[in-house]
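Good morning C.,

I know you're traveling, so I'll keep this short. The sequence:
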Amino acid sequence: MAVVAAPERAPVTLAGRALGRRLPQLLAGLLLYGSSMGLMMRAALGVNPWDVLHQGLQRHLGLSMGAWVTITGAAVLLLWIPLRQRPGVGTVGNVLLLGLAMDLTLRTVGTPGPLTARIALLALGIVLNGLATGLYIGARLGPGPRDGLMTGLHRRTGRSLRLIRTGIELTVLLVGVLLGGTAGIGTVAYALAIGPLAQFFLRRCAVPEPPAGPPAGPPSSAGAVTSAPTAAEVTAEPRN
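The tokens, ready to paste straight into the viewer:
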């Protein structure tokens, strides 16, 4: 009787191993990001500019904080259309998961009484937010809607990422304060710390790039749809 050799198992490539890591890392990063937003909120010492806006909207229109995180994320994502950018899996996950994780954290964690405990909770929230940023951007499956808006405007206008980010964040903060949102020392601490923290954690969390293949064809025209911004672009000025 002839012996039939068992089929050889296909080797696991670097790209395959990376994909197996990227999805769980993305999920962990997005859930941690939403939870860290809830912790900063519970510290009651001031939140990041977008959450100041969410607070103001909640004050006047109701709904939960997480619901407003989802609504504004979807609204910002619509602004990608004229910028001709394509969302990734991480972009959609950002819209769907951040608000849910934030609301769950707000339901399970209360505001501590002592000021020292609130400062510690704020610091924990900011550090975890930096770790979450490194995780979800390092997964390379698409940035958050707000990051994509920033990098899309950068590509279209030629202005610096820092200038565009500052303009967006100051506008959002001003509108949020006018609507009754809370800005405080936590807002300043977040603005100063999140960039260095995100870059620190991204260096340790970034999934290795697969080997580059041969060029697929001629460069796209100026009117072509632009793919989601790269991790290098986003981490220059990280935001969810």
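Safe travels,
E.
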